[in-house]
User: Fold these one by one.
Assistant:
Number 1:
Amino acid sequence: MIRIGAFLVGLFFSGWLLVSAAMGAFNFVKSPPAPTAEHEFHKKPKDVDFSFNGPLGTYDRAQLQRGLQVFREVCSACHSLHYVSFRDFAALGYNEAQIKTIAQEWPTEAPSINPETGEATTRKPIATDKIPAPYPNEVAARAANNNAAPPDLSLMTKARHGGANYVYSLLTGYQNPPAELKKKFPDSMPGKTTHYNPYFANLNLAMPRPLNTDGQVTYGEGAPKPTVDQMAKDVAAFLTWTAEPKLEQRKRAGTAAVIFLLVFFGLCVGAYKNIWADKKAHA
Amino acid sequence: MSFPWANEYKPSNAFTRYLDEKLPLPRFVYNAVGAGYPVPRNLNYFWNFGVLAGVALMVQIVSGIILAMHYAAEGTVAFASVEHIMRDVNAGWFIRYAHMNGASMFFIVVYIHIFRGLFYGSYKPPREMVWHLGLVIFLLMMATAFMGYVLPWGQMSFWGAKVITGLFGAIPLVGEPIQTWLLGGFAPDNAALNRFFSLHYLLPFVILGVIVLHIWALHIPGSSNPTGVEVKSEQDTVPFHPYYTAKDGVGVAAFFLVFATLLFFAPNFLGEPDNYIPANPMSTPANIVPEWYFWPFYAILRAFTVDFLFIPAKLLGVLAMFAAILLLFFLPWLDTSAVRSGHYRPLFRKFFWFGLIPCIVVLGYCGGSHATDGIVLISQFAAAYYFAHFLIILPLIARVETPKPLPNSITEAVLAQHATLQPAE
Amino acid sequence: MASLKEDSATAGGDQGGVRRRDFINVAAASFAGVGAVSVALPLINQMNPSADVLAEASTEVDVSAIAPGQAIKTIFRKQPLFVRHLTPEEIAAAEKVSTSELRDPQTLEERTKAGKKQWLVTMGVCTHLGCVPLGAAAGEIKGEFGGYFCPCHGSSYDTAGRIRKGPAPKNLMVPEYAFTSDTVIKVG
């Protein structure tokens, strides 16, 4: 009885799936899906040789500091860094006094309350503050940016396939739309408020090119030349740190753990052979 | 355990004698997973995965209890509280990544455990109850994992909750009220987040309880083995301890080696980047996918694209997805072959390795991919095979197949294998 | 086929002396123990204050607006902190007391910074059972010694924040602090 029932249920599900497949295939042949602009023009992020790549890679402190500078002078005008505090910059190699200065000189102020009147106001940020956002709320962010709110960048490199490579490719990927795009997909041409970038998911993004010219940010003594390429790499590295500040501890702990476990595994195999030795012998 | 030659627990000192009289817990453990449990001597490494699943559950419970000390189940702060754990809590990143990847390890181990059972016929009498309780554990695990994935309140959490509860919306008439009831609202929000947190905390302990029943039921007939031949005499068995504790030690070490590699060097490899974007009810991710361990079932869900008479395709997909799991409960009566082990079943073995396994892999691949026409087409064929395999092919094989001769006893099989491995002896 | 009892005896290594194979078993078990402990340590440490809590463990207080005779209540480590501007009379009252008759002998000098005797900085936490004493805000009773009075069990503190009467065993705690300028105190 169970087997007859099962046979009928199986016949129904399998049969109907095959019918659906046949209908799907028929439709596919009759009206093949039109190719999309994304499918033809979207590019995979470029590979960058970052210092933190690989199982033992670490951050380059100087690069993170330059990346912070690019973020502060360029990105922070529109993007927040919600989950990062000034005190976290100790990990970039700054001391307490330097962090205090960075906080004091940050382009935006922290929200606060006037102690006398209770009215909302702002004050100079302190080390324990989160990085203050450029806009008080999402509505303000939308209103100031043609209805496209700039996303928070704290976790950006973990929130996109390709991570730091993606951020770098996007920043250096702005270009004029290819003539072929206009010919084949006129609808996918950038509009008045969007900009063509083949590394962006739907090819046109609201953010105008942020890094325009070499030397847009002035790096300190001994730093590499602030070319657009260099600035993009530095800020991509910085945003990797904001997304994964514990990367170095993680890899260090991991190396120790794996070595320990390899030895442990060897010992376990030894103990196992040992305990079974007489069983095998007597077999 | 029923074998008459099982070692008997002998308390060695005054304290254990006292304890044995008042609360014989050491005796219980001794008989359950100690030297008092005789186990077939020929178990291979696939028999490690039951213990490994227990280890994985303990990892999840310990790391989960700790995470709950720092996590806040409230829509506006849930995402931030997870980031607080990752950034500020001492070793928080370690505990959170352990929990995240521990879930994947748990499913890897349990899937291997299930496929071990499928290949070696562990679901057959007299162990049907063990199989059924195992499936109950599997269902509870799926519910727990799903609710846990909602807690970080990222984009995939939110949209996963919406889509999965939406499945209940496919039920005619009562569907929508049920969905609203599950969510405590019209879309996932605080009410849903809090109840998911509560149940996500509760269910692992229910799983623990069912595991006790699972092991209890196992101990009545005793463990199965790769030959599928029942234990006949004392020389067919060895005591669980120290023989299988030692062998499980090797398994546990290997488990932690894989786990540590994943946790420390590729902690986000199995995750979706979208879940690092805070939940946003106003924008849907381009490709909503569940965690990898749900992919095969998700592919079955999406494979139904055509209405059948008055049954809409969506409902068919939901029914098929649940059927895909529930049909496993009927396995003891679908596969009627008297031979348990796939080793001695030439036809069964072919369908297992060249039918079922590729079918599941293909379904998994399809479930994790963007649902293009091609992917849907492939998943339709694979899903058709899945149902046919269990519901039609297995019962038929049992009728037509001529099994290979079985060894007379476990010991004979071990000796035969030994002879081929070491001809000198 | 050896009997099981003999087998486990061999595995246990009862046959005279520790052999190399037993050493491996012991080593494997010890490694498991070491591994368990090294995982347990961070799992215990996670209950200690997190980085954001520790970062807020220092507070800056601007005292320029506190007139003599007044006090403010502020927050240090999520606990009340009293900063009191003593009047010359209060200072004199505190210095008049001989330390020998105190339960917790300390002079006002020892409880304030050099040259800043008028600034009494103490935790607003009664040393008895942790209630917040009265006397910092305007209009609150200061107890019979003119300092602070704890309403829970009647401990009275004097103008140097020293315990004078009631069940509290110690003076109000003076946290670690320093003047970063004439009018700014950094506590912690």
Number 2:
Amino acid sequence: MKARSMGKAGIKRNRKRITVARLERFASAIVRGVIIFGICFVILYPIYLKLSVSLMDEKDLYDATVKYVPKHFTLGNYRKVLEGLEYGKSLLYTAVLSAGVSVLQVVSCMLTAYSFARFRFPGRNLLFGCVIFSLIVPPQIVMLPMFMKFRFFDIFSIFKAVTGSTVNLIDTPWPMLIQAVTCTGFKNGLYIYMLRQFCKGLPKELEEAAFMDGCGKLRTFVQIMVPSTVPMMVTVFLFGFVWQWTDSFYTGMFMPKAALFSNKLSALATVLHKQYAAMGGDMNFVSPGFASQMNNTGSLLVILPLIVLYLVCQKHFVEGIGRSGIVG
Amino acid sequence: MGLFHKVNGKRKLTLRGKEAVAGYVFAIPFLVGFFGLFLPMLIKSIQFSFSNMTVEQGGYVLTKAANNGLEHYIRALSIDPEFNLNLLGSVKDMAVNVPLIIIFSFFAANLLNMKFRGRGVARSIFFLPVILTSGIVLGIESSDLLQATLGPEGMLSADDANTVFNVAGFLLNYTNLPSGIIMYLSQAVLGIYDIVISSGVQILIFLAGLQGISPSLYEASNMEGATAWENFWKITFPMISPLILVNAIYTIIDSFTSANNELMQEIKNTIFSDVKYGYGSAMAWIYFVVITIIICIVGGIIGKRVFYMD
């Protein structure tokens, strides 16, 4: 009798414990959900705001009763901005340049990273210190010599000897391509670091097996190392692509006149204003509302392709980071 | 173990030597870039900062600046009214924001590492700032008047700021927390957007680290009856500590070199709009020295406490 009741109590307590655990899990899920939702809201809110401003007529901006939802719905802003950005042309140029630069960056950084990850050679640690050093130096410090270098470009005075003067590479894509090939582009030290950590985490056995089978170093690299590093390479490619796409620092310096998004976007409101003034409009100055609408619509259109690309590559992206094992 | 050995009187590469050569060959892109482009430019930039430059057809001429070439440095530090203020301002911003960004991104990475429905979507959204804070997009946003009033900063205006300060006042009156901490936290709440938006890469790095921790550690400690709290402080935190160092340094560099930084804009304007090459380079170098000192201090402090598995 006694034993039975104790058993019952035990079962009861057991059941109770389960419900408490369940409650706990439920509560923590709710707290987590609220926090995540809040952060997502903070991130997405400005995008929504851009979207709603871009769909408004200018008079909605000055109307206190209009806030998040446009009253006079219009696509006029988009039409103006598509024209002002020369969207098709800029999209093509920017995409080609970004793709070219980031692919070159991935290749050159991957080669270097492989060397640092797998080969032992004198001065390796010192050279890797140089990689980190090049990451720490702000690009603004070498901005001016960089500009000079490419303004009066020469390799061992060869061009000067042949043609009598140095080559002006400003307003050509060459400076960026050269930087990408030589790992001196934007944050390339970071890419080398990430790729090296990833390579270090891969098992050595495959390469050893390949070596036993008489596979050369280059072939090992191309046929074994590169395929297993793809997730991280996608990540690096995406970083490079995004940062090149929106880069205003190097673009403003090396190609200020090219039809690239960052150039077009920063001049957008002024350009459009000029066009309207020339057509005999009554705007004597760029009204802040108009400028803002153009800027918001413009930045939306500029980041739209990036977001699409990002969603397509997202799975690789997160996986690459997840498996990189940057620790160690 | 030498790199060479003698075969029939000829010097030949050992296996080790061949490996070394292959290593150098694979590193060629970086070696050329660093020693052929980067280092000479760094040296050039030091030269510029000590001289006056005039651009002529087909080249440029450097003449030594006054005061043994130190003119530009003296001017930046003791004559220019803006430079010191801006320098101090960016150091202050950094000191306020970096700890917050690191704590937030660590927290967010922990959240994203849990299993829950919609994790993929949440991750995508958390990494969006990598796109949103890059280059021109951020530049446009910060120069936008309307965004300043309607945008996330403006969103937290008047009423919300009041609420935050009321809460801060309440905490000041009824708890024993030091007032410095309360003011710091209330500032953090008001600046949440800035913090969230600049933590994209950091969250990624932390998340990578979290996923790199072997689950067997947790299994073992659970068997011993450790609570989640203990697990966090005794496993997660030490294992992730090398990445705290990496992230701290990355965040410092990021905040110093972002295009939004006033000092950076000043340097760029001095060089390209005012065409004062020497002066601009001198400013950049003073700035770099300050950054390096700060990074060394931070690296020293955190580096001592970091736990390495091997």
